[in-house]
Specification:
This protein is of the alpha/beta class. It folds into two domains: 9-70 and 353-463, Alpha-Beta Complex (Aspartate Aminotransferase, domain 1), CATH 3.90.1150; 87-351, Type I PLP-dependent aspartate aminotransferase-like (Major domain) (Aspartate Aminotransferase, domain 2). 37% of the residues lie in helices and 12% in strands. Pyridoxal 5'-phosphate binds at residues 137-138, 165-168, 221, 250, 253, 275, 305, 333.
Length: 464
Amino acid sequence: MDSTSHELPMRTLERTASQLGCSLTDEKLALYLDEHDNLKNFQECFHIPKMKDLPLIDLSLVNEDENSIYLLGNSLGLQPRNVKKYLEEELEKWAKMGGYGHEIGKRPWITGDECIVHHMINIVGAHKDEIGLMNGLTVNLHLLLLSFFKPTSTRFKILLEAKAFPSDHYAIESQLQLHGLNVEKSMLMIKPREGEDTLRMEDILEVIEKEGDSIAVILFSGVQFYTGQLFDIPAITKAGQAKGCFVGFDLAHAVGNVELHLHDWGVDFACWCSYKYLNSGAGALAGIFIHEKHAYTMKPALAGWFGHKLESRFNMDNKLDLIPGVNGYRLSNPPILLVCALEASLEIFSQTTMKTLRRKSILLTGYMEYLIKHYYSKDKTASNKPFVKIMTPSHIEHRGCQLTLTFSIPMKSVFQELEKRGVVCDKREPSGIRVAPVPLYNSFHDVYRFIKALASAISAAKLK
């Protein structure tokens, strides 16, 4: 596989198929791409659910011993094989030495989060002292907003997407209420144009330019959870800061999915979960970023013991010696069992780069996009033929690995039939099925198998 540039997927696919003397729909192409994939061995680092173990499988339709077609990394990543080993190490240490484990071993419990934070540097593009591993995503978002959202009589609005993920919407709404502000006047929501699914960058910039003097904080997602749209983080950051706004991002669907350069882009703050593309398990330890330029000017509104400098933390004199920057936002002991799960995943990322992962991701998702359009584009000459629309932007710079699909036949029926055939994906109201070929553990043949399963599922759903 050519790994020299972010070449448009179709050019790579067409060139490779021509070399093989086959069509782009031939299984031979998928197998060749996998054979020449320099990331293929990473699949062995994960547990992939078998068909027979899925709860809604129809074993008459599949080979029960075959791997499922797992395309749900955008919601819950697969379990790294070392998770169990690392958990057992800490459970054994706890059993054998009790409280001594706080200061002894591979990952002392007092500094367990600090032991692995270096793995995040290249994933989010930040300095070590700008990154913290703590809490859950929404807890971190609240902590950040308590510091960065300081409304005045003239600058009191928060700009967000109209269809932001519910937890972000609720967090912002409650922060406004906390300050006694009128939610309808202070919650500035931007939505796509009539008849469109995704936001246009020019519309986002226009709102920032027009309303910027009254906006205190801009909070966007990096990748939109429903549509899969990748926003232009540096452009939004630059435009917002030029108007005097603080600019932050919820990177739940971006971290581990696309290249990020938070420090160089000058992003003020960000937060993310680690159970999607970072594969650390449901409810896993979340992450937080505060740019170093705010290290001595921004302080947590809510302080905890673990925000106190370690060298004097145990003086127990109740005189807070706050760690500058993001680490001052830590409240409590790092949950070591969650640290173990995150470490097992981040060690895998440390064996490659986000640039390399992104290169494969562009081709993998482009391959899926091509096959869907080839088989299921709307055919005006065959009005009864089911068709599939891809809601996610087609431009590679405007999406991560996820594609959101809508259908001309009932979506729920298609989804049920996919589940019967061992496709693990998810549906999101009102009408989307999200599929995410993840470059760390998904193969080109997984995509080929998905298209075959989709054909069968659509045929079955059409008969209902």
